[in-house]
UniProtKB/TrEMBL annotation:
Residues 2-117 form the VOC domain. Pfam families: Glyoxalase (PF00903). This is VOC family protein. It comes from Novosphingobium album.
């Protein structure tokens, strides 16, 4: 069964852990000096927070976590059908986990990952080059994502 994934950048990890522990009614399943993750069943979500110097705060990226290779193949097929560039990262280490993953960005630059976690990792991990997916601020703020150029600023009103 697939699990929705949300990753949020925070300014104060301890305060955020306390807040989300209260909100979810349980503590994180994983806690590191710069990261925490809740694997909730109700609602079924992989909710992660991280503290990265200089990174924007708020939602960094969204994703779909799968439980096996068959679900991963299904979700990868959906990514390809979305008619946008897909980065098939393959085997990687990110967020203290080993995973098989691919990335895509929606038309507004919101970065999505599809992944199968295959084990634990002792370090936070490296960032893939998502430059071909989107060049928006949303994409440049994603965890495990490289810094990308900011789009030209436009006034809204």
């Amino acid at each position: 069964m697939k699990r929705f994934h949300v990753h949020v950048g925070v300014a104060d990890l301890d305060a955020s852990i306390a807040f989300y522990t209260g909100l979810f009614g349980t503590g994180p399943a994983v806690t590191k000096a710069d990261y925490a993750k809740w694997m909730l069943e109700d609602p079924r979500i992989n909710f992660a927070i991280s503290l990265k110097e200089g990174a924007a705060k708020g939602i960094e990226h969204l994703g779909v976590q799968v439980e096996d290779e068959a679900e991963l193949a299904e979700v990868y097929g959906r990514l390809k059908a979305a008619d946008a560039p897909v980065l098939e990262e393959g085997a990687t280490a990110c967020c203290y986990a080993k995973s098989e993953k691919s990335w895509i960005a929606d038309p507004d630059g919101v970065v999505w990952e599809a992944f199968l976690t295959t084990g634990e990792n002792t370090t936070y991990g490296e960032s893939p080059d998502l430059a071909g997916l989107a060049s928006t601020q949303a994409a440049s703020n994603a965890c495990c994502a490289p810094q990308m150029p900011s789009p030209a600023k436009t006034s809204c009103c």
